[in-house]
Every structure is written in structure tokens, then in C-alpha cells.
Here is the input.
Amino acid sequence: MMWNWIGQLANNLVGDPLKQWQTRKTMKLEQAFELDKLVHETNIAKANAVLEMARKGQQQSYDLDKIAMQNMQTSWKDELVLVLFLTPIVLAFIPGMDAYVHKGFDAIEKMPAWYTSIVIGMVVVIYGMRGMLKSYFQKTNNLQRQFDDKKEG
Here is the structure.
């Protein structure tokens, strides 16, 4: 009888705190699991949102290019730009005019970057070539990174 009472006392002194410790530990693990699950679900939601934005952006660029192509059918701007771009090529084959072509390109080379960027932007909008311009800049950035990597190494 006395041993029974000592066993119950020991169980109350040691067993209950151990059970409470185990319960707290289990609750912490469950909370950590739930938190990890929420973080994972949040990351999936973010990735899906980025994917959807990319899809909408591509569709929007395609739609704008399509509108530009449709407007070209009734516009004279594309013909004017084509004539301006072909003029140096034609002049290069006329004796004595090639010097003027070279002077013109030298003058263009000295123009501010913001101005030439605007001209490029106008041509891109007129001809509906946003996708081509985007891929050009991506390739240019990749080439620049490769050059920088070789320079550092």
C-alpha cells in the first residue's frame, strides 16, 4: 500500500510534468508544420500570380502589336519610316553620295542616347515589333553579363 502511494506521488511529481512537456512539444511541432504549410501555399500562390501576370503581359504586348499592324494598313507613317531607313542604302550606291551617308551616320552616333532611344521606340510602335525589341534587349543584357564575367575573370 505504501509502495502504491509512493508510485502515485512519483507519477504526479514526474509523470504530469513529462506529459505536459510532451504536449507542449507536440503542439510546437504541429504549429511549425502548419506554418511551413502556409509558407508553402503562399509561395505557390505567389508563383501562380507571377505566372498569370506574365501571361497577361504577353497577351497585352501581342494585342498592342496586333493593333499596330492593323493600323499600318491605313497609315502613312510606316511608309515614311521605311523611306527614311532605305534612303541611306540607296544613297550609298550613288557616286559621291556615300560621303553624305557616312556624315549622317556620324551625326546620328553623336546624338544623345535618350533621343535615339525615342526614335527606336517610335519605329517599334509603328511596326508593332515589341516582342522583337524585348528579345533584343534580353540578348544584349546577356552579352553584357558575359563580357563583364570575362572581364572579371
The radius of gyration is 35 Å.
